[in-house]
Each structure stands twice: as C-alpha cells, then as structure tokens.
Amino acid sequence: MGKTADLTTVQKMTIDTLKKEGKTQKVIAKEVGCSQSSVSKHINREAKGRKRCGRKECTSKRDKRALEWIVKQNRFKNVGEIHKEWTVAGVSASRSTTHRRMQDMGFSCRIPRVKPLLNKRQRQKRLAWAQDKKDWTAAEWSKVMFSDERKFCISFGNQGPRVWRKTGEAQNPRCLKSSVKFPQSVMVWVSMSSAAVGPLCFLRSRVNAAVYQEVLEHFMLPAADQLYGGDDFIFQHDLAPAHSAKSTSTWFKDHGIPLLDWPANSPDLNPIENLLGIVKRKMRDARPNNAEELKATIKATWALITPEECNRLVDSMPRRIAAAIQAKGAATKY
Question: d(Cα 202, Cα 187) in Å, to the nearest integer?
C-alpha cells in the first residue's frame, strides 16, 4: 500500500482519529496497516485541504446504501453474487468496484466463528445459571476442576497453516496438504484448574458410564491430588450421557466429590475449551504420520501449557458470566 489512493475510507478515518490523539506517523502506520508514506501523504493532503484527484466515483450514496443492504441480507455470499444483485438493482459498476465499495464500508472476508445452536429453553437455563453464578469471585472459580473430552485428528481440517506458492505451483507436492477420508484420530480426556493442567488420558473405546468411571478413578482422582492436595474442590463436566448417568452420579456421591451444575450445550462457558484450542494451534506445524506420533505430539504440547495460561483462563470466568447475562443466555464470543 504505497499510495494514498489505496487507503480505504475506514483507514483514513482511523488515521485522522489517531492523529488527533497525538500519535506519531510511525505508530499510526503500524496500527492502520499501511506504509508511513501513505499516512504522511494523507495527513498533508488533509492539512492543505486538497481533494482526491482522479475520476469521480460512479456510485452514489444511494447505491452504497443498496450495496450495504444486499451484503447484510446474506453475509455468506461471495463478491460475484453480491455484484450480480447490485447490478440487477440498477447500478452500473464492475466487480472490482463492488469489492472496493464493500472494503470502504469496512467489510472484510473472514473465516466465520462457530457458536453452539441454542434453543429458547437452553438460553433460559444458561441465563438462570449465569445469574446464579454472577457473584462468584476468581478465588471461588479457582476451586473448580474443569474437564472435557476432545478428539484430535492427524488432519486438522481447514484451520491449518496456509502455503506460499507461485503461479503454476498448485500441484507441487511441497505445496499440497495431505487429506484422507477417514483420518486417524485419538480421543483424549483432560482436566485443569487455575494452577495447572492435570494428566492426559487417552481413551481407547467409546466413552460410556463404565469407561468414564474408570477415567475418574485412575486419572481424575490423581489429578485432584496433584492440583489441590488435600483441599476441597468442585468438579465440572458437561451433560454428556456418560457424565449424567445414574451410576456416575452415585460414584461422585460415594467419593464425596461435589459437582458444579452446568448448563447444556455451553462450551463457550468452559475455559478448558480455550485451552484445547491453544493446544491445537500449537500443533499446527506438527506433521504426525500415525496415531502414536499424534499421541506423542499431544503429550509434548500439553506439557508446554504454563500455570499462567491456566490462571488467565480461569480468571476469565466472571467475564464469561457477565457476557452470558448480557447476551440473555445466548452464545458468547468465548
């Protein structure tokens, strides 16, 4: 972006705002994401009162409002589809002009975030749960042991690293990403507190109540001793069938371990979900060839999790609760 003409309307407004705040051109260029010369030219042009040279825009304010309405009707359309609808509406503009106008409005093409689909009853229960826990402090949340199961695959899907390549190198073996129909995978049970993570448990079979209780006996109890010593703690798990089975509830009663009531379909409220996301991001550059190598990679990455990361995630619980209340029980950004 070497030219002032390349700056979008949003970038120009950001430059003007940061300039008024007294920021230097170097800092402004870094925050806006353009060259320092572009910032300098824009500021000098504004100071001299010069208008942008070149051909007059072929679209009116009314045309731009129509474009914004089309985009907001379905945000998953591509530029070609949006351009076609805009043309049908009576606007004479090229596909590239359509793309530029969308950028000027602040629209950017991004990978959408995924949030759980909640029905009305689930939202109401989440809201009631959040209101009940809104006065819990970070110290109280530090007494909770969070847990979850997660499947790790050798192929990490579309969220993996991108590749730099030149024209004609699309089929270059060094530029290809391996893909298999049924990738090898391993299922892992994990736990954490605000102090550290617990030991990993690789599950060899489908998790039913009996298998889950063996995990609790041989991995959860040692993890509790490691994380809490002899202090009291509260155990958290979701409402999976193996977790909510009567025999599992009896197991917890027999061992005198209190359970944290948990709303259904609420991974965004569980900090261990974010921790597992961190693990997957750290594993992006790994290239395991089989299940055993995948297990070794998971173990090595899990060992790199620091107490500071655990503490930061558990400390976010009051903010998660506040966000759930503000969203009236709907899924949150977490």
Answer: 6
Residue 288 confidence (pLDDT): 86
287 is written with which tokens?
Answer: 């290239």
CA-nearest of 19, 46, 106 to 29 is 19
Cβ neighbors of 135 (< 8 A, separation 6 or more) are: none
How many CB atoms within 10 Å of residue 304? 10
**How far is 334 from 324, CA to CA, in rounded Å?**
10
**Amino acid symbol at 192:** M
Sign of CA dihedral 297, 298, 304, 309: positive
- What tokens appear for 264 in the block? 């259904």
What are the tokens at 206? 């489908």
Pairing of strands 185-192, 144-153: antiparallel
Note whether 227 and 194 are within 8 A (CB).
no
Two tokens, residue 11:
């970038």
- Tens-digit pLDDT profile for residues 82-119: 999 999 999 989 999 999 998 898 888 776 766 677 88
- At what angle are helices 120-133 and 317-326 packed, to 10 degrees? 130
pLDDT 10s digits, 55-80: 777 889 999 999 999 988 888 888 89
144 forms beta bridges with 234
CA gap 312, 274 in Å, rounded = 11
Token couple for 293: 């190598």
Question: Which residue type is seen at 277?
Answer: G
Rounded to an integer, what distance in angstroms lies between the CA atom of residue 157 and that of residue 36?
Answer: 38
Concatenated DSSP letters of 3-31: SGGG--HHHHHHHHHHHHTT--HHHHHHH
Query: Please, are residues 251 and 216 in contact by the beta-carbon 8 Å criterion?
Result: yes
Q: Hey, how many other C-beta atoms are within 10 angstroms of the C-beta on 262?
A: 17
Helices 317-326, 307-315: axis angle to 10 degrees equals 30
Other Cβ atoms closer than 10 A to 221: 13
C-alpha closest to that of 66 among 83, 78, 50, 41: 83
